[in-house]
Design goal:
The chain has about 325 residues and is of the alpha+beta class. The chain has three domains: about 25 residues; about 140 residues, Winged helix-like DNA-binding domain superfamily/Winged helix DNA-binding domain (Arc Repressor Mutant, subunit A); about 150 residues, Gcn5-related N-acetyltransferase (GNAT) (Aminopeptidase, 3-Layer(aba) Sandwich), CATH 3.40.630. The chain contains 14 helices and ten strands. The strands form two sheets. It has a seven-stranded mixed sheet, sandwiched between helices. The protein has a three-stranded antiparallel sheet with strand order 1-3-2. The protein starts with a helix and ends with a strand.
Length: about 325
């Protein structure tokens, strides 16, 4: 019933979110910037073509940089223009094919090339000066002569965007905390939600869900919670067996937060905790149907072993893994 209500609530929230999206807001920024860029390059290219310049709009930025920096290395050119080496290589090949630049092996590094503009390249740049004046004047007028300020904002935005991905920025906002009783109800509902479609609960599971503080923490174990905006989105339980062995149990992430690498955060936390507490090994039980989980365990160098009979998970535990610390 919980899952049904959750799906209804999420559907309602999703519809409300979609209704409230601003059709001209920040979420359309990429589309709008692309339209501006495409239109700008198209109009510049149209100008060159109508004046029969035999010049491509995409050539200008690298060519003027090469002109101002004789014998510039390919890698440095890419860095200056803030593009990939492969992208700048393609343009340089095209410029060289049209005899606008010459390349040769660098004296300092034979694996690298230096680039120099040719006489024909300088003549071609000179021929488009009237066009460049017109383009610069028009852009300044359209931006109310605030070009440098606008460019600075775009550069700042681009730099910050490159520093980390949307996913990385989001993960930075997620907290890992130790279990608190205020999450007791959410803890139970979250863990039961992934049980219901696939597996039956044992009495051992039910005791942990009813009172995680008493059944896990007060017996020497620990529970770590993933929390986003004070909302429980994931957890991992660490069951104390003895001073040598601790068990990972009930690691789960809410369905709408999966795919962000949050299981790795939980696993890292569990392993760090086990090492701090001087355990020699970590044990876990799982089911062969959980292929993604099994792949994660193998990535962390867990070794599959014969399933012992001491566990409390019934038929669902048909695989056992251990990590020796």
């Amino acid at each position: 019933m919980y899952m049904a209500n959750l799906l209804i609530d999420k559907a309602t929230e999703s519809e409300q979110y979609l209704e409230n999206i601003d059709e001209n807001g920040v979420l359309l920024m990429g589309w709008r910037l692309k339209k501006v860029t495409d239109n700008l390059f198209k109009q510049v290219q149209d100008l060159y073509d109508k004046r029969k310049r035999n010049f491509k709009a995409v050539w200008f930025t690298p060519l003027i940089t090469i002109y101002k920096n004789p014998d510039i290395e390919l890698k440095t050119l890419a860095e200056k223009r803030k593009v990939t080496a492969s992208a700048i290589t393609q343009i340089v090949k095209e410029l060289e094919k049209n005899n606008l630049v010459k390349t040769k092996k660098s004296k300092e590094d034979q694996r690298s090339k230096t680039i120099k503009i040719t006489k024909k390249g300088i003549e071609l740049l000179t021929s488009i000066i009237p066009d460049l004046n017109l383009i610069e004047e028009t852009i300044n007028e359209l931006l109310s002569h605030d070009f440098h300020s606008t460019l600075a904002k775009l550069e700042n935005f681009s730099q910050k965007l490159s520093e980390s991905s949307f996913e990385e920025r989001y993960i930075e906002k997620i907290k890992i905390i130790k279990y608190q009783d205020k999450y007791k109800k959410d803890f139970k509902e979250l863990n039961e939600s992934w049980f219901n479609p696939m597996f039956s609960q044992t009495d051992y599971d039910r005791k942990q869900f009813r009172n995680p503080q008493k059944s896990i923490i007060e017996k020497g174990g620990e529970i770590f919670l993933l929390v986003s905006d004070d909302e429980l989105i994931g957890n991992i339980c660490l069951i104390h067996h003895d001073n040598d062995n601790i068990e990972i149990s009930k690691m789960c992430v809410r369905k709408d937060f999966q795919g962000l690498g949050l299981s790795k955060l939980l696993m890292n936390q569990a392993i760090e905790y086990a090492r701090e507490k001087k355990y020699n090994r970590i044990t876990l039980y799982t089911n062969s149907q959980l292929s993604s989980a099994i792949e994660l365990y193998r990535k962390y160098n867990f070794i599959q072993e014969t399933v012992d009979s001491k566990h409390s998970y019934g038929d669902r535990a048909d695989m056992q893994f251990k990590l020796y610390l």
